[in-house]
Amino acid sequence: MTISEILQYCMSKPGAEQSVHNDWKATQIKVADVLFAMVNEVEGRPAVSLKTSPELAELLREQHTDVRPSRHLNKAHWSTVYLDGSLPDSQLYYLVDASYQQAVELLPEQVRQQLSV
């Protein structure tokens, strides 16, 4: 999967907005100001940082060398996944969906209703 493909998928989510974090040279994707994905190159490889439960993060890191704790975000919840690694695209899509859902759950009910999610 490429950075362009993962960005396109993230931006297809209701309410998704894109911005650039200059310090980290990363593209942030948020829903109503809540971050759910950060896309950039890590060690010269395309990568995305996504939020998961601490249990899932630990399991993914144990099973896949291409999943690591995120450098700039809470390491218990955020994992950096290399897009050119061993995770199949279907699993990357699932992780984006789960990260987006966690962000949406933090939003007030009125905002969630406006998003129709």
TrEMBL record:
Concerning InterPro entries, the annotation shows: YjbR (IPR007351), YjbR-like_sf (IPR038056), YjbR/MT2646/Rv2570-like (IPR058532)
Is the keyword Cell membrane assigned to this protein?
Answer: no
Which terms does the record give in the GO molecular function aspect? DNA binding
Instruction: From the UniProt annotation, give the residues forming the signal peptide.
Output: none
Top-level taxon in the UniProt lineage: Bacteria
User: Which Pfam families does the entry mention?
Assistant: YjbR
Sorted keywords for this record are: DNA-binding
Q: Which PANTHER family match?
A: CYTOPLASMIC PROTEIN, CYTOPLASMIC PROTEIN-RELATED
Protein name, entry field: MmcQ/YjbR family DNA-binding protein
**Gene source species:** Pseudenterobacter timonensis
Taxonomic classification: Bacteria, Pseudomonadati, Pseudomonadota, Gammaproteobacteria, Enterobacterales
